[in-house]
Amino acid sequence: MLKLNINRFGEYEFEDGITIKEIIQALEGEGKKIKGAIGGVLNGKIIDVHTPIRESGELRFITKKDPESLELLRHSLAHIMAQALKELYGDENVHLGIGPTTEHGFYYDVEVEGKRLTEEDLPVIEEKMREIINRNCPVERKEIPRDEAIELFEKKKEIYKIDIIKHQIPEGEPISVYTQCDFIDLCRGPHIPSTGEAGAFKLVSLAGAYWRGKEGNPMLQRIYGVAFWTEKELKKYLNMLEEAKKRDHRKLGKELELFMITDEVGGGLALWLPKGAIIRNEIENAWKQEHVKRGYQLVYTPHVGKEHLWKTSGHVDFYRENMFPEMQIEEEGYFVKPMNCPFHVEIYKSKQRSYKELPLRFAELGTVYRYERSGVLHGLMRVRGFTQDDAHIICREDQVEEEIKGVLELILDTLRSYGFDEFQVFLSTRPEKSVGDDRMWEVATDSLRKAIESVGLTYEIDEGGGAFYGPKIDVKIKDAIGRMWQCSTVQFDFNLPERFDMYYIGEDNQRHRPYMIHRAIFGSIERFIGVLLEHYAGQLPLWLSPVQARIIPIADAHIPYAKEVEKQLKEAGLRVEVDERNERMNKKIRDAELQKIPYMLVVGDKEAESKTVAVRTKKKGNIGTMPVEEFIQKAKKIIEEKSLEL
What we know:
Strand order of the largest sheet: 15-19-20-27-24-23-21-22
Shape: globular
Distance between the termini: 68 Å
Helix content: 25-40%
Structural class: alpha+beta
């Protein structure tokens, strides 16, 4: 018998294998009113009305008003799309891979024999999906024996489903299939009760995807869709997608001449052009100054290290598929570094450490290299060579709480200085398999929790979501169009101190194992700049702008005065240029706006005579004429304060 504590209804006993559908029928038989339930959450896991319940615990019914219901909607729409493909192109011609949900929708990896799907096919597939929804087919779940499942999908020539059964579902684990109308698919669920329950959706794009993510396997087509319960929510999201296209950092990077990625150099390896290098240099200089101010010591480490180092750290055993191939130098193996941590450990171990020296805070803008598959590379957001704003804090147990608080304050101060003030914070706790003793996990997790609370942030607990080597905090930032970006991480590591036998001499003259904390504020410089470009749509704050002012002479006769102003501004430390082209003034202004230059300084007879400049910005238009020195002081104040306003 199962004991279920059902939200709002109390505790009940049921037979093993009962479903939510049957529970609702039983409760309604007692006169209870249950309106609009389409699934439930059992012990934190989302299930549908058809899933057999085989464990006691907490059960909560969910309706379309609950955020968890989107999982059912989106998973079901993936199946509806798969059914539509079968009906359009023939059951025997369409071979299905996997069809999971995403943050805002779903996708399905498919192979259609004799046809390469294009963007023009998406509206046709959508129309067939709506037809299936209108049929209001009941969705049913059934568990079948392993041999029967293999036989079923062999008859349907579903080679990828057979592969899943044979290699991804352990022997003895239930195999479930879902049916709707005449369509059947291998699936764990959850799903809505019938196709007619489906909400608003749109198919948005196609991509290639290797089966099971391995390059030697067949290339399937991945069809992406987005889905919400209402047309209003869908429209809002699609508008955001349109805005995101305009802000795409790859497009801006090309238009503003900031960076480039070429086939000649290699995918995922960015070349920073002079203007992009200015942005990067400003960010890195500010980062260094702030870290020195807060007691960090800057270090530099090489780009390659001996194989033995990476064996000791565990990277060769556990991370090798993400590392570039080994190099042989003088009969010894070397790897380009995927992380900076082992080098910082070596610096710590360069001499015996005393408890009086701790905490030690080593910081580095260290460029690392990771083998990302070509299919996932994306501008600056997903690259193969990137610079981590890395730091490692090595401290005593009694220093842990204060150190974590200091890291979190640094993270928030830094991110706010770039205009981000909305955060999502996640605290990930100990997983089932882990290293480190109970006390270390307790101290570390409690310190992370207290630090979050001390800075006044709300947070979510990700139970068991920590790494095997320690708990962590992840911080996401919200951009100007509402997207959340994973940014900062604070991660304890109980693994490396053990592997490298790190210790310090305590007050008792005995050896003690220190606590080690990894942390990054931006995550990587490349990705953060990509986020910044999209957040500001390329219109960066004055202190980050590659060109802070463009001087626009009204006619050729005013170029000498424009050059004079340029000299004054450059001597004051401002980044400026003169537009000497033989173009009309209005075109010059428009071109400066397209280049996202913060200030346009128009000069003519009047300005030359009075030693002034007519100041314009894109947002405010003409903001008045002022002496050159006054403009210099105004601009320098904005830069020094890192103000986001002009």
